[in-house]
Amino acid sequence: MLDSIKNFLNYFGGSSPYLDDADNIFLLIILIFSLTLIFSLIKNKPFRLFLSLSLSLFFSLQSISLYFTRSFIGYSFFVHLNLEYKANVSYMIWPIFFTSITVFFTSFFLLFCSRNILIWISKKVSFVGVYIKWVRLGIALISLTLIFYIFNKSSIIADTSTLFSIAYSNAKPFQETLISLNMTDYVVPENVKSIATKNLVVISLESLESSFLKEPYKHLTPELSRLKDEWTYIPIKQNIGSDWTSGSIYTMLTGIPAFFGVQANKIFKSSKESYITSLSTVLSNANYELAYFCGDANFSGIKDMLYTLDFDRVMDYTSVNYPVETTPFGLHDKDVFDLAKKELKDLIETKKPFGVFISTTDTHFPKGFYDARMEAFVEKRDDPLEFMISATDFHISDIISFLEKEGVLENTVVIILPDHLKMGDDLIFNKKSDRELYLITNSNKLNVEKSNDPKVQLDIPLMIIESLDIESNAKFLSQYITGDKAEFIKNNIAELTALNTSGLLRAKTNVFELSKISKHYDFYISDTLRFIAHAGGIIDGKKYTNSLEALNASYNKGFRLFELDIIKTSDNYYVAAHDWENWAKQVGFLGDVPPNLKEFKEHKIYDSYSPLDMNDINKWFLKHPNARLVTDKINEPEKFSSLFIDKSRLMMELFDMKAIKEGLQIDSLSVMPSQSVISNLGKNEIKKLKELGVSNISVSVDFAKTNIEMMSYIKELGVNSYLYNVNIESWTNENFVLKYFMDNAYGLYSDDWQF
Q1: What's the whole-model pTM score?
Q2: Strand ranges in 197-294 using DSSP code E only, listed in sequence order
Q3: Which residues contact 554 (CB under 8 A, 6 or more apart)?
């Protein structure tokens, strides 16, 4: 029983019974106890109620923070709460949810009822009643002593102050922030010069810290242990601001802690370029082809961040064209490495230098994500985390063997490093004080003799550049730090936050400004090929009907391009409807959605308009040979195009690179990448799409407003941009868009227009 309790408490930062060990969860328990004593002295019941509720919530949140981050509430905790991924981390959330509820009610009972308990004791124990004043004095002294001890031993104040320093850092212009950090000769990306040397493969290992390369776990990592001895091994200390996955990736690339204020990782959604020089800047400016492989690139803003920092492609579960089992973090590591090896073959054939980055997730806290397929390669173990550690070790051995077989290992620098220390129970390791990260490489260019310069995560991009022996004028934050780097970070949190945010917020983006009406307006208004009848077009003032009557009405007005929303019935037939919830309201359907095909066909839209299945769609387009179909929603180009009467009259809006690649293989089919794809691409990637045969794209009016330079570039390439979300705002009607947007676009999705 006691062992079970101890093991459970370990997930919150340890459960040692010794005060001098000062484990966080033990300190939290002492704090609750000491405040309980103090609260027994508070007479005012409403005041005691208010404080009890407030502090119980505080303790509950602290328990969540200890579970996730092994520290009290700070910036790392804030970032975890900001993950746009909450549904998929339920495997972690549900255990701590029940624990936090327990903490809340337990602490509330102790705090609020403590005075009643003291009164009850004083009545039952005569000694206490006689000396109640001295008892209260003793309680006060004991409580204050314990609280002093807690604040002396714990990081609770430091963690909280770090959060406030980041959250309330003052925004400064980028150049001003550089000056305040004495980085006056910093080289921004556009001025970075570098020359390619060897290829690069970087493998970031989820939580696989150095403790797993030591006893009693060394037997789980034979390959890593071998490489530690045979290759170059450098210990690295974890620094604050880089102790979660996306934060560590950012630091690995930029050499700056990932402090982004209240926006956290979401900041990258509004940024496509950065004034911050990164490892990827150095590689990109040396004409390396950069690719990142991971389970799910949308997790924690990673994809947006990587595209902001000059990566050419980011590949994850959306890039796999065969059925796979997924985890809350997307692909299993086996599939990530298989995907990386496939792309590496293509990159090797190009003879261009490449930088390939691979991130693992199967060893994630708390117990890893078991992949039974790996039982064919490594010894099965009772503990799933231990098994997946062995699996990761196998993947490292396998990818190194792959590079050797492909004949490129000698010309490739391999970098292996953990993303951060293991979360959760650290008492599984023999010596907590020895916990650290590391960098393992086959390069002999690193100076490992600099014992007076202990490495932290800030040093990683410089270490990788040194491993490659690349000559570059790029400079990184660690080169400006003299003395203890950890102390520097703590003392400059606000400035570093300002550096990150201003570097992104000052990115090169052009914002739409209302100008004169286009000189070509009169031409635009009559060019039928610039107008797509949205959801078939309006009929009797009603939108989104996707009906036969809407098609006929729009055709008679002069439309020749017709968008239909294509979704599937419960029996897997394609039909035209925007979504099933909206369709059910339009037709008064009370059954379960999606309906089957028979149910769909039996219900008229608004009791007046005819629904369209695949046969109806084909009949209509057969009858109107100069009309073209533009699809929305459906992301299956091969299957859908095979059912449509004429692929040459089909434009399919597609929503990921996997579907786009599939569509480009189909003769005469026009592939139309959506904004979800285009918004993550730079100019080079869009140019590649054009070269592959893409001639149309679909983006929103809002995208066109905020990306004028990119829209102009797309037009210069000869790619037609069709704008949607017309009429979402009253002022963005068809006429407005034709007047002010068409010089940087080509066409629009229109509900209604008279030619």
Answers
A1: 0.60
A2: 199-205, 232-237, 289-293
A3: 533, 536, 537, 538, 562
CB 162 within 8 A of CB 156: no
Mean pLDDT of 356-383: 92
User: What pLDDT score does 313 carry?
Assistant: 85
DSSP bridge partners of 232: 441
DSSP assigned state of 441: E
- E-strand stretches of 336-469: 354-359, 412-418, 437-441, 455-456
- The per-residue b/e assignment along 405-439, b for 16 or more CB within 10 angstroms, e otherwise, is eeebbeebbbbbbbbbbbbbbbbebeeeeeebbbb
Residue 752, H or E segment:
none
The reply to whether 521-750 shares the fold of 173-505 is no
CATH fourth-level superfamily of 521-750: Phosphatidylinositol (PI) phosphodiesterase (3.20.20.190)
> How many alpha carbons fall within 13 Å on the CB side of residue 646?
15
The set of long-range contacts for 93-101, using a CB threshold of 8 Å and a minimum separation of 24, is 95/67, 96/63, 96/64, 96/67, 96/68, 99/63, 99/67, 100/60, 100/61, 100/63, 100/64, 101/60
Contact status, residue 506 vs residue 273, Cβ threshold 8 Å? no
The residue extents of the domains of the chain are: 2-165, 173-505, 521-750
* Structure confidence by residue, pLDDT tens digits, 476-530: 999 999 889 988 998 888 889 888 888 874 334 444 444 557 778 888 988 999 9
Element housing 723 (H / E): strand 720-724
**What end-to-end distance do the CA atoms of the chain give, in Å?**
80
Fold annotation for 173-505:
Alkaline Phosphatase, subunit A (3.40.720)
Cβ(645)–Cβ(618) below 8 Å:
yes
Q: Where are the alpha helices (DSSP H) in 231-278?
A: 245-254
Helix %, strand %, coil % for the chain, to 5? 50, 10, 35
Q: How far apart, in whole angstroms, are the C-alpha atoms of residue 529 and residue 751? A: 15
